[in-house]
Amino acid sequence: MELAKIEVKTDGGPWCEHNMPCSVCGKTVAVMDMNSGTFEPCWECQQQGWLTVRLPRWLARWFRRRRNDRLWPCARKEAS
Ligand SMILES: [Zn+2]
From the CA of 48, how far away is ligand 1's center (Å)? Predict the structure, then answer.
């Protein structure tokens, strides 16, 4: 996996160029929130209700531990 390239433009206000793909659909480029420095899903996915959220540390750990759990269909491999 390649790291995202981020180029912050200082001319003409807070704006930046990057090549980070949308973490939801992966088809379009994500939207970077310059205030928090985090990536939001692309505009289209945001319209469908997708958001990037910050979880409390304990909850983030809980999710990470259950990443391979069968409870999470998104983490499961596609059944062939
Ligand atoms: Zn998207």
Answer: 9
DSSP H stretches of helix in 1-80: 43-47, 57-65
The pTM (predicted TM-score) of the whole model is: 0.55
* 27-53 pLDDT per residue, tens: 888 888 877 778 889 999 999 999 888
Report how far residue 21's alpha carbon sits from residue 27's, in angstroms, rounded to the nearest whole number: 7
- Ligand 1 centroid to 39 CA: how many Å? 11
- The rounded distance, in Å, linking the Cα atoms of 39 and 23 is 8
Angle ∠(55,60,63) on CA atoms, nearest 5: 125
Q: Phi then psi for 62, rounded to 5 degrees?
A: -60, -45
**23 Cα: distance to centroid of ligand 1 (angstroms):** 7
Give helix then strand counts, H and E, for the chain: 2, 4
